[in-house]
Specification:
CATH class of the largest domain: Alpha Beta
Shape: globular
Order of helices and strands: EHEHEHEHEHEHHEEHEHEHEHEEHHH
Strand order of the largest sheet: 3-2-1-4-5-6-7
Strand content: 15-25%
Radius of gyration: 21 Å
CATH architecture of the largest domain: 3-Layer(aba) Sandwich
Oligomer: single chain
Helix content: 25-40%
Number of domains: 2
Largest sheet: 7 strands, parallel
Number of strands: 13
Structural class: alpha/beta
């Protein structure tokens, strides 16, 4: 079986590439073809080993355009991906099937994204979603082709609190005591509500908040805002090792987003043993069970967010260790990339092999 993944797989900060690499690594009997366009030194370093896997072929766009495939799998709804699907189907008419993973919760109010989703629904021979929230609507409109939910995951061998990353911590946070600060990791964009983190930080000048993430084109106005608060250390876009070190050292993960397909940053936080405070919206309740591994609180109630945040920051060290071990163990059971990749292998054999 020959499968096209129309993305640059060697991008370790890209959650879509991460999902599709898991599919490659968990299904050695399937031949995958993809492109290469690393963006960082980590991408170059890890890519050297990845491209040596016997079941993955690195190819140029011209080579991909000349190859016939049994199937195409995408995990994002973009015009580039849909053009790749159409081209692959034209090269192998009647024999190339398309599997679409829906990674976002999209509605009619989302303009271009809604149009792309509806196009993907028309083109796809099979569809899965990363969460019930992302699949809502799709499952009804595409009943005969909707194959259920397969969640995003994380790599427990990489996101492991036993790894010593102290030396890579930025100077601004190196002296913060373990468990003493709340952490936000996410893009600066409207749906993630970084302005709420700013509001929390201003309400509690007695503690230090830490945040990291890239600036989304729709969220440029948030950057001066997060950098204007003296007790909010905004690190900007940092590499995965820094994220891992911050997750190990933080006391609670704050995630006020109102809409997610299934947030990888939340899964990684839980996998590192951190409790998560988020909103009871979209797919967040599929990750966080209130008062079990975090809290589900609407951002309209700043007081409850503050109370929950301090509750986690004030946990005794011994109780924190026990809590972290429990959160990590449960997250590994539910969201290991290895098991998720194997589930996609079953879908490939169903959709692509008839």
């Amino acid at each position: 079986m020959r499968v096209l993944l129309p993305i640059s797989l060697d991008r370790w900060r890209n959650p879509i590439a991460t999902l599709l690499r898991a599919c490659v690594e968990s299904n050695p009997e399937i031949e995958f073809h993809s492109a290469s366009k690393p963006c960082s030194s980590e991408d170059h370093e890890l890519g050297m080993a990845f491209w040596k896997l016997p079941n993955v072929r690195q190819a140029t766009q011209l080579q991909l355009a000349a190859t016939r495939f049994d199937g195409v799998h995408t995990a994002s709804i973009t015009a580039h991906n849909q053009a790749a699907v159409l081209a692959a189907k034209l090269r192998n008419p009647g024999a190339c099937e398309y599997l679409a993973t829906i990674n976002l919760q999209v509605g009619p109010e989302d303009g271009k994204d809604w149009t792309l989703l509806r196009t993907a629904e028309k083109l796809a021979d099979g569809l899965v979603a990363v969460s019930k929230a992302a699949g809502d609507g799709v499952s009804h409109r595409c009943q005969d082709r909707y194959l259920g939910e397969i969640p995003n995951g994380f790599d427990p061998n990489y996101f492991d609190p036993a790894i010593d990353d102290e030396g890579i911590l930025p100077p601004q946070v190196r002296d913060l005591q373990p468990g003493s600060f709340p952490l936000y990791v996410g893009a600066l964009e409207p749906r993630k509500h970084p302005e709420f983190i700013v509001e929390l930080a201003r309400a509690h000048p007695e503690i230090t908040f830490v945040g990291a993430g890239y600036v989304h084109p729709l969220g440029r106005h948030f950057e001066p805002m997060v950098r204007s608060v003296s007790n909010l250390v905004w690190l900007g876009h940092v590499d995965r090792r820094v994220i891992r070190a911050l997750l190990k050292r933080a006391g609670v993960f704050l995630f006020p987003s109102e809409r997610e397909g299934l947030a990888l940053s939340v899964i990684e936080a839980l996998g590192m043993g951190l409790p998560v405070i988020c909103q009871p919206k979209s797919s967040m309740p599929e990750l966080v069970t209130d008062r079990l591994n975090g809290r589900l609180i609407d951002t309209t109630d700043l007081g409850k967010w503050s109370q929950a945040m301090f509750g986690y920051l004030r946990i005794a060290d011994e109780a924190r260790v026990i809590q972290a071990s429990s959160f990590r163990s449960e997250t590994i059971k539910r969201f290991s990339w290895a098991s998720i990749g194997k589930r996609y292998g079953e879908i490939y054999r169903c959709v692509f092999a008839g």
